[in-house]
Amino acid sequence: xxxxxxxxxxxxxxxxxxxxxxxxxxxxxxxxxxxxxxxxxxxxxxxxxxxxxxxxxxxxxxxxxxxxxxxxxxxxxxxxxxxxxxxxxxxxxxxxxxxxxxxxxxxxxxxxxxxxxxxxxxxxxxxxxxxxxxxxxxxxxxxxxxxxxxxxxxxxxxxxxxxxxxxxxxxxxxxxxxxxxxxxxxxxxxxxxxxxxxxxxxxxxxxxxxxxxxxxxxxxxxxxxxxxxxxxxxxxxxxxxxxxxxxxxxxxxxxxxxxxxxxxxxxxxxxxxxxxxxxxxxxxxxxxxxxxxxxxxxxxxxxxxxxxxxxxxxxxxxxxxxxxxxxxxxxxxxxxxxxxxxxxxxxxxxxxxxxxxxxxxxxxxxxxxxxxxxxxxxxxxxxxxxxxxxxxxxxxxxxxxxxxxxxxxxxxxxxxxxxxxxxxxxxxxxxxxxx
Amino acid sequence: xxxxxxxxxxxxxxxxxxxxxxxxxxxxxxxxxxxxxxxxxxxxxxxxxxxxxxxxxxxxxxxxxxxxxxxxxxxxxxxxxxxxxxxxxxxxxxxxxxxxxxxxxxxxxxxxxxxxxxxxxxxxxxxxxxxxxxxxxxxxxxxxxxxxxxxxxxxxxxxxxxxxxxxxxxxxxxxxxxxxxxxxxxxxxxxxxxxxxxxxxxxxxxxxxxxxxxxxxxxxxxxxxxxxxxxxxxxxxxxxxxxxxxxxxxxxxxxxxxxxxxx
Lengths: 435, 263
Description:
The structure holds two protein chains of two kinds.
Chain A: H1 4-31, H2 43-55, H3 64-93, H4 104-132, H5 147-171, H6 174-179, H7 186-189, H8 198-222, H9 230-239, H10 253-263, H11 295-303, H12 309-313, H13 315-318, H14 325-345, H15 357-360, H16 364-368, H17 375-379, H18 386-400, H19 406-418
Helix pairs in contact in A: 1-8, 1-14, 2-9, 3-4, 4-5, 5-8, 9-11, 11-14, 14-18
Chain B: H1 10-15, E1 22-25, H2 27-32, H3 34-49, E2 54-55, H4 66-71, H5 74-90, E3 95-98, H6 101-110, E4 119-122, H7 123-132, E5 147-150, H8 164-171, E6 176-178, H9 208-217, E7 223-226, H10 229-241, E8 249-252, H11 253-260
Parallel strand pairs in B: 1-2, 1-3, 3-4, 5-6, 5-7, 7-8
Helix pairs in contact in B: 3-11, 7-8, 9-10
Domain 4Fe-4S ferredoxin-type (chain A): 295-326, 359-392
GO molecular function, one term (chain A): 4 iron, 4 sulfur cluster binding
Protein name (chain A): Fe-S oxidoreductase
């Protein structure tokens, strides 16, 4: 019987990490539903970007208040994970504060954790106030209702509770308090429990300890269902982020082939297709559903933290139009999740559900409101490119469905016929010099 | 004044067996839009003044296809690009200067993927080079004591990270440069990019160019400076919408330099 807690602990760990691993696999499978794209180039530049943007949080501090608070929470999260190591060893082997043999170094370590836990608690509380009391505009856009709104708050509650449990656990640890080393914050919480018997204190300490570790396991598994997934995916996403100038939109290769054929005076329009050509899946121009996007775009959809920095810089959104780059990313993720569930329910095969990203999630009106100004791309703290998704969907609308707004069709016809977006004769192109 | 403008074509250069230093890519707006044509003329006056050996394609130039690409018509874009590349390569063009950040971005970043590799420069960068190398001396106090605010074009700024060249050039006018709240990488779009110039905006509270003009007017400028024909049109319309056209002028960087030099 004396090993029961150890066994329960081991089971909790296996269950917690096992379920998480299962969901991670699902995410990877879903991301791989996207088209392949070659991002194996410029490894050193990519590593630098990841180090600077994800690890170094360089783009977060562009908005100083949320940036600094975010760094506190981020550093706190990483460093407190060292404490997790001790918790796991203690839990598995029934020891108590196994690292305390380190003496004053241990005191220093735990002291640091306590200060960070306290700072994280304060930061998270300010985050909560910004969301719920000050009601920052970007957290109250139309796409931030229901789950996205609750999700944001749940994460904050989780962190408040986890930090409190950590401090309570230390405050009620009689031996630790007696050491009077490292209890920089918890010594001020300890008096709250004065007068309680040592056994009661011990049960509170054990209770907080268990809730803390179980809470961490639950939080770990919450990631999959939450925008909080960014704490992991920000790293690959900044690594695979766009390296080319922001204004450079990719040239569709499938189109290049066709254009070359059209322009080639020696091409035989009636020639039989090359051998093997019929095996190729007919290319769809642009994207109407998530499978038409590339896997980096799908990875970005899972990475999006819904912070809304993109939307708050979007000229269309700022002038009251329906477009919100954040919603583009959220819709892509929602649809991808739906497709994933469909595949799970149909033994690994996607069964047409009569829905798609374009139309059912993202409207034409949103797509046509984009000025391609790159403000959203510039703002994103984790290198997401919502513009690339908007462009792919415009391509589908124009090249597969001929569904551009009438005025744009006129403009395109003019370019085709006169080499200018207006109905002027190409022969008049130099008239300006004599006017 | 028109008799003073020297605008040779590539065809003429070819006939003489010569290569110009640069090709001036005029662009569709610069060729046909009444307001943008003035920018083309101002830039040519500067080139003439600095004795730059340049040429234009004239009737052989066609739309870059940039607008079509951003509207989603990749076919039309590539057709235009391939045709233009054939013409450019036939003339052996190496260096291109343009007043339109959209042409600049498209020629510089998107043509190489289709085989057209050129050294492409925006006119504000080129004027800056001319000044730095001493080929162009800007003197004159026309704008001294005036306040100028520069509106960053998305396709020069965010898209290609060029924020300094237009500002460096503007400093030559001896005017006072004031920055809008949103400038450089946070600059607000004029509202014309991504083919918006050619369609009605989607329904909203206001038009983007009006909001951007409000940004500019907050600095209480005498002049709103632009570096893009589309931005110029949008800001001019914005100033009209705010009924400030009597107090505030919208001018391209090239026009400001040409005026300073009394060209």
